[in-house]
Amino acid sequence: MFFVGWALLLTVPYWCFCWPSPTDYEALLKQLGFPIFVASLCLPISVAVGRFHASKQRAKANTLTVENNAFNNYFAHRNHFMEHIGNAGIPKEYEGFIEVYDSDKLYKTVFPQNSLSEQNFRINKSTYKAQLRRKLKSLYGHINTFVIEVEEGEVERDHEEFEAFARTIPHAFGFRFSDGFAKFYGDYAKRTNFTFFSLCFLAIKHTLLSVHAFNHIQTVGWLIETEFEPYLTSLEENEALINADAKAMEYMVWLLTEDKSR
Known about the structure:
Elements: H1 2-10, H2 25-40, H3 42-89, E1 98-100, H4 103-110, H5 125-151, H6 159-167, E2 175-177, H7 181-191, H8 196-212, H9 221-237, H10 239-261
């Protein structure tokens, strides 16, 4: 309408409320050529504006579709992950000893870059390595509080406090020890030479490896093995840890005895 209005305005000097003679047609067409050209501009410009608007609408719709798909896929994948760790996440040799208690934390450990807005199953190895070391340091620090108490001869924990202390050992990774962990350890110790703390590290390591098997895009098994090895080695060589482990075994025997007496 903008161009048609200007075109009509340009024709005002040529308005005539009469029927032109045939000899005037050529002159009339020459005089009205420019107004007609101005009026005709509305067609291509209207089409261009319409297509531009439609392309913006399509781009917005595509963006919303991508975001919606990422949102839905995130929860679908996360729920599938929860089913996996519920059915096959815990290695059979540690069933009855360790279990998942924080599935969200565990999911972010296995898929740290996947989110509601972006689907990404890759793992930044340097970031993951730093995260793994931080969690192992937290775990080792938790155990070290008990080691220092034993070393200084100031163990004041009652058996319930020790049970609570033991169950929080794997929390940094989203795991916890099950209610029957004392019995499991009693049976396990008869068949192996592993001490309590070494069993804790082994259970966490192997369960973490099992859970990571769900990530078909990328594996970091070698990184988990590498980072856990120094801690497992120190459990065999550190005298303070060996003494603390012996004390832990006394608590475990008591917990097992208490469990049988109930």
